[in-house]
């Protein structure tokens, strides 16, 4: 057992080192962002604007609400990651016009700062031919009084972009603003909730994510005597989605509390809401609709929504169990980390390695290939632990990074179960020079 574990450690370290050393194009400069001004920049906006194609932006732990904590990535490859030491709170990012062959990785960020929102959702991926990977992030959709200009906004909007992957992330749609007390004359406008993820003529793969639609406004406004519905967890409008593991829940309908009026009660949101031009494949996902809201004057309660609301043939439930892959990050050059495969006992496990992010549906493999060619494939043996996990701790050899340099490698798990190949989610290995 010890010998086998040591073999896996050595195999992983050697595979990663060879892939990185033999791919000098993966090497990139590092921009350090620190809110107290101790890095190369103190705000995300300046860092994104000034970064060169291929750079890695490392955000120190902290709350960036006092800075320009939003920005736009327009047509260039970037990695934007936390430093791994604590939470990083930012507002929003728009990724737009990414050409084919370019990639953006967002890792370890919390999007919930309210002070600046300039896009249609917390994160918006717009008109991108290149690939985007969002990993280990938390995205809280916006729910504000529309006396500010936004209303309720989704956590993630994918529009006109066909290569978006989201892994091990939590996404919550914006809630309609709550207005109290009952029968008030508040000027703020209540709203329906917003979906956690809205896919408009785009394509997304979701692995091990938690999605929840936004709730409708709880309010008692005399000016707006209406009830407001909850939103779907995942809403597809001419979109394509593959969802593996995790959960999707619709938002609850809002309560109306003014006794002077009796509007129709608000329904909850569906777990998944899709139109006839969409398609969604679902593999071992916990699905639930949101609860209906109540109306105080009539005592009526809105209808709950179902877990899936879509025309026949749009949603397909796949057989079997979801698979996963995770790695620590970012890692220092010559640093130690742990790779965790999540599968089923008896699975034969292999590791795909690549320099780029991709998005190739693999219907016969129960998944989406989230890496770009060329690929390396490394066998890692069989899962024997009853938990279904294969845990591989490792230490990287020194890669000779300069004082402000980084390397990026993309990994994806391949699991073979009784001859059937299944893909897990992708993960990014970001290696940075010691001392950054």
Kindly name the structural category: mainly beta
Shape: globular
The largest sheet is: 21 strands, mixed
Cα distance, first to last residue?
36 Å
Radius of gyration: 23 Å
CATH architecture of the largest domain: 3 Solenoid
Tell me the count of domains: 2
* Secondary structure tally, helices: 2
Task: Characterize the structure shown.
- With 436 residues, the protein is mostly beta strands.
- The chain has 2 domains: 2-318, Pectate Lyase C-like, CATH 2.160.20; 324-432, S-adenosyl-L-methionine-dependent methyltransferases, CATH 2.20.130.20.
- Helices cover 6% and strands 44% of the residues.
- It contains 2 helices and 34 strands.
- The protein has helices spanning 2-21, 44-50, and strands spanning 28-33, 56-59, 62-63, 70-74, 78-82, 88-90, 92-96, 103-107, 110-111, 123-126, 131-135, 138-140, 156-159, 164-167, 170-172, 179-184, 197-200, 203-212, 219-221, 234-237, 240-249, 272-274, 279-283, 286-288, 308-309, 315-318, 324-327, 331-332, 336-342, 348-362, 367-382, 389-395, 405-417, 420-432.
- The chain has a 21-stranded mixed β-sheet that branches. The protein has an 8-stranded parallel β-sheet with strand order 4-7-10-13-17-20-22-25.
- The longest helix is centred in the first third of the chain and has 20 residues, at 2-21.
- The model is unreliable at 145-149 (pLDDT under 50).
